Amino acid sequence: MPLHIYVPDDHGATEVLAVSGDAVAVRPRRWPGDTYPSLWFWFAVRNDTNSAAPAARIEVRELRPGADSYEPFWKHCLWSRDGEAWERIPDGCQSFGETTLRIDAPLAVGETVWVAATFPLSYAGCAARSAAWQQPAPSGLTLERREFGRSVEGRPLEAFHIRRPGAAPEHQFVIVAGQHAVEQTGKLFARVVLDGYHSGAFANTPMAALLEQWAVTVVPLANPDGCAHGRMNTNAAGVVVDDPADDSVETRALLGLLDELQPRVLVNCHGWGNEQGAPPYEDLYRWTDEDPLFAWLRARVPGCNSSSAAHWLADRFRLECHVRPRYGTECVITEQNWNWYVPPSGGPPRHPTRADLEVRVVEYFTEMACFCLHGKGADAAL
Ligand SMILES: [Zn+2]
After folding, report:
1. 282 CA to centre of ligand 1 in angstroms
2. What predicted TM-score, i.e. pTM, was given to this entire model?
């Protein structure tokens, strides 16, 4: 077989349909229970021949066009030569059919090209970051790992309690990520926060000042099985996570943690690649436009409310509807866009690099910290 195709087993969901000559075809796997059409894929193609392939013809099939899939998800895909550094596939190397993405990738002898719907944050990668956060922090902060449960398939459910030694925090700020496990910018949000507190990169910022009076707890991967399998929004048992009827073992364990912490602020990090509204096409779920945390962010994080349709929490989300009546928790769900970015310094909208996405997380989290320090989050009467 001249071309070899490789699908990682720690962030799966790519099905191989055909490999022949200089052509391969794949499709995203549709998992039982997922309520969105599957649009996630991540795989590699390697030239095992003795001669350079002028171009490997790679086709991703059975993609859903139109409104039911927020179509542009798959029109800004990425490729990589080493599986680490990703860039948008150049226009000249890709073409689109009604339900297909065709990529023409020049491949020298022994060369590999990786293709993904967006920046993949695999289960193995998440586990490696977790191990790193358990090492002594150069920042001098304490990142205490706590396993608060196990997934259906036995993967650990982890929280990191972040504290400044000597501080006596009065309030709890909780970040949850990865419920919908291929919404990569949600997982990236938690990763940037934990990396920043661990490395010391947040020193002398509002995010560091937050720890004077607030304890920050981050759950970086609330649905580890979903991440490992590349599911859109379900756990390994096919339960839609954070749906009102979500009684998954993962969410029950998380509710137990939230009952213990009784957070004043809960930020639930999701992500998407939509193009509805104005760039960067983002929104925050909230109950009303007057919700204090939402109002604070809308006024200070440009573009955080740029989707054409308002996103209401209403009674639709398990975690949020659990904590608000019990603890008066301020809640938002973030939907950071992995396909669009508007530089804070000005300049036209563009397809973000991984570094751009990390800058955007810091924009959000800085203002979340400021809300706690200077906004209504600082009021005892919240
Ligand atoms: Zn989601």
Report:
1. 13
2. 0.96
Give the class (CATH, top level) of 3-116: mainly beta
Instruction: Output the CA 220–ligand 1 centroid distance in Å.
Output: 14
Please determine, looking at this structure, whether the domain spanning 123-378 carries the CATH number 3.40.630.10.
Answer: yes
Per residue in 344-362, pLDDT tens? 988 999 999 999 999 999 9
349 C-alpha to center of ligand 1: Å? 23
**Which of the residue ranges 73-77, 150-154, 376-380 would you say has the lowest mean pLDDT?**
376-380
Whether 3-116 and 123-378 share one fold: the answer is no
3-state SS assignment for residue 341: strand
Distance CA 194, CA 190 (A): 6
Asked if the bond preceding 156 is cis, omega within 30° of 0, the reply is: no
Tell me the CA–centroid distance for residue 184 and ligand 1, in Å.
Answer: 10
pLDDT at 129 over 90: yes
CA-based nearest residue to 117, from 79, 83, 155, 154: 79
Strands (E), the chain: 3-6, 14-20, 23-28, 42-47, 53-60, 78-80, 86-88, 94-96, 101-107, 112-116, 142-150, 156-163, 171-177, 214-219, 265-272, 284-285, 330-337
Residue ranges with CB less than 5 Å from ion ligand 1 = 180, 183, 270
Any idea of the CA torsion for 265, 196, 301, 280, to the nearest 10 degrees? -110
Q: Quick one: pLDDT at residue 1?
A: 47
Classify burial at 30, counting beta carbons within 10 Å of its beta carbon; exposed 0-12, middle 13-18, buried 19 or more: middle
Q: With H, G, I as helix, E, B as strand and everything else as coil, classify residue 80.
A: strand
Q: Domain map of the chain by residue range?
A: 3-116, 123-378
Mean pLDDT taken over the chain: 94
Q: How far is CA 78 from CA 200, 244, 281, 332, 351, in A?
A: 31, 34, 19, 29, 11
Give residue-wise pLDDT tens across range 210-254: 999 999 999 999 999 999 999 999 999 999 999 999 999 999 999
Q: Find the 334 Cα to ligand 1 centroid distance in Å.
A: 9
